[in-house]
Amino acid sequence: MASSNLKTLHPWLQENDTKLSSGGTLKSYSHDNGSDPIFCIVHGYPQSSYMWRHVLPAWKPHASLFIPELPGYGLSSLPPDPSKRAIAHQILSALQTVLPTSPARPIYWIAHDRGARIGHRLLTSPSPPPNLRAAVLMDIVPTLAQWRAFANPAAATAYFHWPFLATASAPDAIEGMGGAAFCRMILARGRGGNALGAQRIDADDAYAHYASIFDGRDAIRGSCADYAEGSVPECEAQEAEQRAGRKVGLPVLVVYSEGSLGRMHDVEGVWREWVEEGKVELLGVGNGHGHYLPESADGVVAEGVLGFVRKHSG
């Protein structure tokens, strides 16, 4: 197991293990400023909360922080239900245990990759939390739009792991290769061409940290279950919501890599079909930065998020 975590780097964080009513334990890190708004900060694949290590000091003076380890990604328990709305409610339940005054305080969902997909499903749920003010979704388009893009061979090969991880044979195949080796391969494919950004991604032995976690059976099995649920079940649910005209009604900032996600999608055009008019803002990050923006372009991400939150804090 990885020898360091967020608390190792930032001793001002509290480490939490929250027992969930649905079973199992959710690990998280937190810092409570008291009455400040809460940033619920959720990682994606194939990473952990460690991916936020560069941006947290910039956010600490402005918000209380809750940084969960995704259920099924090796550090929190395997979830009984891998659907994204179920995971969102597990995270929010743990948040309210760790920061017990949270029902009266605004929450901003700030997330990357799979964590952003969980946020998107939460935002379109029939009854999102009343104190959820806005969301920052990093380097994604909606899941249904991503699957539809695979008609393009360039997109299908760039995101080959999507259909692969959703198959029943994926966990055994990854275990045969070695979870650590597979994790390193995926990370290398998404790092982008910015040399300084690549150094920032690997700083603090991050590759070794993620590879160590994904060498474990629970991380392999749990993350594959996430992708399986995110294939046919999630696409069918999103198709139904689109037919019903259900769109995101809260303010959303989409932060995306211009040379990666932006090369495959008309990111702005796609999101305007999924969010109510006037509620979506875009922040494209260029200069060769790849998928892992909170590490690679942490200064841009930190300031972009704070500017968006200030705008929607009233």
Automatic annotation (TrEMBL):
Domain AB hydrolase-1: 37-155
Any matching Pfam family: Abhydrolase_1
Protein name: AB hydrolase-1 domain-containing protein
